[in-house]
Every structure is written in C-alpha cells, then in structure tokens.
Specification:
Aspartate Aminotransferase, domain 2, Aspartate Aminotransferase, domain 1, alpha/beta, 2 domains, 10 strands, three-stranded antiparallel sheet, seven-stranded mixed sheet, about 475 residues
Length: about 475
C-alpha cells in the first residue's frame, strides 16, 4: 500500500479556507520556517479512501480474537465512551473555577472510593498517566517514607525474575538498586531466596500477584509478612488485578502501595487508542506523600508538605478515569467479581483445550492467563514460538505475547479475557490443533507464515537494525 506522501499530487486541494477578516500578524523571524512544510496534497475522496484502506488493515479487538497476555486487550463497552463524551466532562477546562467543576470532582472522589474499595487501599492519586508512570510514583512514595524515617540506607528493591520489565526500570529511575529474586519450580517467589536477601538495606518488594505466568502465589501472606518484619514496604503491580478483583484485595494480602492499569482491568483505551491512566493507591500512613494538584479545598487541606510533588498536569487524564468509573459502576459489586471469575474460567478452559497439543509450562490451575513453551517443539522440529505466533495470524486471530515471561523458554503467554464467548475459545483451540498438525506434517511451512495477511513475514532483524522511520522525498 502506498504512503500518503506517495499519493500526493502537487497543487491538488481538498478545501480552501476563506480569506481571514482579522489583521495579519507575522511570527518573529526566529521561529519562522525557512521552507514550507512538505504536506501531502490530495483530494477529499483520495484522503477518505487512503484512511479507509488503512483502517481495514488494522486488527483490533473489534476485528477478532485478541489473546494478548499481559495487556488485557478486552472489549471496551461503548457506554464508557458515551459518558466520557458528555459535554460537562469533555468540554471541561482544568483552569475553570472549582465551583463550576463540581461534577468532575465528584467523579474523582467516587472513583477514589470505588478503586480503594476494590484494592483495599485508603487513598489514591489519579495523576499518573500510565502503569509504568504509576510504578514510578509508587516507588517515590516508598522512597519518601524511608527518608522521612531516616532509613536512608534502604536503597534496594527486591523484584522477582518473572516481573514485568518496567518494574526494575522504574526502580532504577527512582534511584534504587534492583535485586532479582529467582522463581521456584512452581513459578512463584523462592522463599529461601527472599529470606536470604532481606536486611536493613531493603526498601521494599515489587510483586505482581497473580504473577506473569498466571499463578496466584500461595505464600503471599508469608512473603508480605517477611518484608514488613524486615522494615520494608510491599508494592503491588496491578497489571493482573483483572484476575482477582472482587475476590481478594492487595491491601488484604499485605501490600502498602498499588498501581492500577485502567486500560487493562477497567476497559479504557490502551496505547495508541488514547491517553492512559495509572492511578496509585496506598495505605493511610503513606497518604501524606501522594501527589496533590491543589485544585479544590479537599486536596489543598490534606497536603502537609510531605507530598512527592505533582507528576502530571492537574488531576491527570480525567476522561480515562471517567470511563473506568463508568465501567465499575455498570458492573456493580457482583459484576466486578463475575468479570474476574469469567477471566479465570476462560483461561483455564482454553488452556485445557490446547493442552493435548501444546501443554502449559506450569501445568496447574491458572488464573487469567497461562504460558506455553515451544522449547521442546523447536528443538525437535525447528518451529518456535515466533513461527506459531505468525501462523495464528492466518487463522484470523492476534497472536499472544511472545518470549515473555523471560523465565519460560520459547514462551507464548495466552490471555483470553472475560469478554470472549465459548465459541471463540473453541475456534482458537482448533487453530492451535491445526497448527500442531502442520508441525507434524510440514514443519518448514510455518517459517513462511503468515500467508493471508496484507503483509507477509518481514525481515524482523533487518527492520530492527535498519529501521525506516521517515519518508524520503525524491530529489
């Protein structure tokens, strides 16, 4: 498909702006362009066709099955968008007088109440703009807490080797040293390794539970107790809250800080779909350290000067919070639990349907996701996780996450989410069955997949080493 610049024709126009009736004002010479911007020149119908073709080539959750583990790419109910588009929300300006924004403040207060109830926290900030940003803010709380107590020697954060990559990155950005904890043979935290690493230099533990292999750690209460007894804090990575919300709360597991990925659990836009939100909740003793926006009496009154400081403009991405609150209120208390229960049921159902062809790496009851390993298959046939993932594209489904978590060789992480029906899961299982048969009959054919998509298999190594990230205009 041609780029829009390749379809450009000099002099072609779509719309002519009327002559301005206002006096002309020249920008200062220092900020003026030396040359006119090289924008595409096209007719209206050409533009419409170009972007329609692009839209048809894009695959999303509205197109087909999207079992992308670790990101919960589930269907976002349209009512969320309707509420976020209400004029009283969408047209609100953050610098309006507080008394004209009472509804928006009520949304934030109600969202704080609902999400604190779900997580077992006492307070929450909505400023962070994404999950990783939330990690950073949560770790700032941890650091501030220890500094306030004079425990400046606590410079280490313990992180399991199965953690999301953002965990150690966030810890390093805050200034902590990262100590990786090995997993045991069940994919959970190795208790002996944890005990061996706990001392007065440990600021805290970052943990995802259930973890990235989809297992709820049976020793979670012992883990958080040991960290607390050593003087550290427990940080909950909320990436996998979609598996437990309504059944068990991080606060009740012994966690002091939690960040939430609203796009993952509470069905708000994700990534390129729009701005995100990664609110951070905490127990009451950490509340004074939360970021405060100083907009409204409530926040100004509770700011004691111990805040880690503002990390995002105003209250953060407000409309994302409005969407998440809409989702939570639409579900209600029983619906929240039913949602996570269906996520777990769907994952276990699909795992057992696939098991005869590709057994799970940890063959036990999973939570919302499970991990396959193609290591033995690759060693015997030359077909690896990448080949299976590419082949799944030919069956009209998005492939699962590849090569993560790192503790599983040739990993495929499958997360069906709660919004998929049984028929879709059966079709996915049949796709895996047919791919398994292809591996037995013609394994080399998988190296050519996909064969039915607009773009075949690219040279991924070449693309990574020599990326073409801009259009080169012909001279």
């Amino acid at each position: 498909m041609k780029l829009i610049f390749e379809r450009s024709v000099a002099g072609r126009r779509t719309f002519q702006m009327p002559q301005s009736t206002f006096p002309k004002r020249e920008l200062p010479k220092a900020v003026q362009r030396k040359e006119r911007p090289r924008l595409p020149e096209m007719s209206e119908v050409a533009i419409s066709r170009h972007y329609t073709k692009l839209a048809k080539q894009a695959f999303g959750v509205n197109s087909g099955f999207y079992p992308l583990g670790s990101c919960t790419m589930k269907y976002n109910p349209r009512i969320n968008e309707v509420v976020a588009g209400l004029p009283g929300f969408a047209r609100m300006h953050p610098l309006q007088p507080v008394d004209t924004a009472r509804g928006c403040h009520e949304v934030l207060d109600r969202a704080r109440e609902v999400l604190c109830e779900i997580t077992g926290m006492d307070d929450m900030t909505f400023q962070p703009a994404a999950g990783a940003h939330g990690e950073y803010v949560g770790l700032l709380l941890m650091k501030k807490y220890h500094e306030k107590r004079g425990d400046t020697q606590r410079t280490r954060v313990l992180i399991p080797d199965s953690a999301h990559g953002t965990n150690p990155a966030s810890a390093a950005m805050v200034g902590f040293t990262v100590t990786h904890l090995p997993s045991d043979d069940q994919g959970c935290v190795d208790l002996d390794a944890l005990k061996a690493n706990l001392d007065d230099t440990v600021a805290g533990l970052m943990l995802t539970n259930p973890n990235t292999v989809g297992i709820f750690d049976p020793n979670i209460l012992e883990i958080t107790r040991l960290v607390h007894e050593s003087g550290g804090l427990n940080y909950y990575d909320g990436a996998n809250l979609n598996a437990i919300m309504g059944w068990v709360r991080p606060g009740d597991m012994g966690f002091d800080i939690v960040h939430l990925n609203l796009h993952k659990t509470f069905s708000t836009p994700h990534g390129g779909g729009g701005p995100g939100a990664g609110p951070v909740g905490c127990k009451e003793f950490l509340s004074p350290f939360l970021p405060h926006s100083h907009m409204g009496a409530r926040l100004a009154e509770v700011d004691t000067g111990d805040s880690v400081g503002q990390v995002r403009a105003f209250h953060g991405n407000f409309l994302v919070v409005a969407r998440a609150l809409t989702y939570a209120l639409t579900l209600g208390r029983e619906g929240v639990a039913q949602t996570s229960g269906m996520a777990v049921l769907n994952a276990n159902y699909l795992m057992r349907k696939i098991e005869p062809y590709f057994p799970p790496y940890y063959n036990r009851i999973c939570m919302h996701e499970f991990v396959l390993s193609l290591d033995k298959v690759k060693r015997s046939t030359g077909v690896g996780a990448l080949d299976v993932a590419k082949c799944l594209l030919d069956y009209g489904m998005h492939p699962p996450t590849m090569y993560f978590p790192l503790i599983v060789p040739e990993a495929l992480m499958v997360e069906p989410t709660e919004t998929e029906n049984r028929e879709t899961l059966d079709e996915a299982a049949e796709a895996f069955a047919q791919i398994h048969q292809m591996i037995q009959d013609k394994p080399d054919s998988l190296h050519d997949c996909p064969t039915t998509t607009p773009i075949g298999r690219p040279d991924e190594v070449g693309a990574a080493r020599n990326p073409i990230v801009r259009y080169s205009f012909p001279e």
